[in-house]
Design goal:
The protein has about 250 residues and is α/β, with parallel strands linked by helices. The chain has helices spanning about 5-20, 30-50, 70-80, 120-125, 195-200, 220-230, 235-245, and strands at about 25, 55, 85, 90-95, 100, 100-105, 110, 130-135, 140, 165-170, 170-175, 180-185, 210. It has a six-stranded mixed β-sheet, sandwiched between helices. Strands 5-4-9 form a three-stranded mixed β-sheet, with no helix packed on it. Strands 1-2 form a two-stranded parallel ribbon.
Length: about 250
Amino acid sequence: MASEHERREILIATIADLLDGIRHVAVGASSPIPAAGAMLLRARNELCGKPPVRISILGSQRHNFFTNGGVELFDCAAQGRVDAFFLGGGQIDGAGNINLVGTGDYPKTDVRWPGSFGSAYLYHLIPRVILFREEHSPRVFVPKVDFVSARAVTPEVPRRGGPHALLTNMALFDFDRDAGRFALRSVHAPFTPADIRENTGFDYTEPEVVRETPRPDAATLELLHGKILDELAETYPAFARTMKQAA
């Protein structure tokens, strides 16, 4: 059975794969795993002589060229200069909508979360949005969100942005924008397709044969445990230290 740090290694490597081909990825605050995945892609590109990757990590001094936080990120997204971003949610439904406000009938919510911030704006503008949530449970993945902070599909309004994939601690889903629903791509060992079905509150497409999410190879792990975690420590020292100790 994979340990917690091994599962996180799988998530980091999977994120790097999902970001392949982008020029600029922005990462929000409190997102060490997405940040590590972006750094892994950048390091891979440097080694292979591929085009450089620009990373903007909000809250970082070293890995962020913005000087005014979210304001510049929003401007950059509107200009089409951000290719990928990460969003999560207290609830995510089968149509790709996310809820960052709270549960229950708004405004009388049973549980209150921090709020939508600029999620609807960024979801609409950034082409490759990766939905990321480590917890995979029916309370997170619901048939319909209680409040729509950001809508995945807007047939009545043209948009260039939207969900590209959903990654959790158990599985990876692709998002079919034409169908407006998720499709299971792979399952992280030791979980099974039955585990995913049991812990997902919305319906999704499942192939006849569900493959296992690839584990990172030795070269990737060497890069991750060295250069990547060293770079990550500037913004997320506790996370980087924990991952290094467990390696």
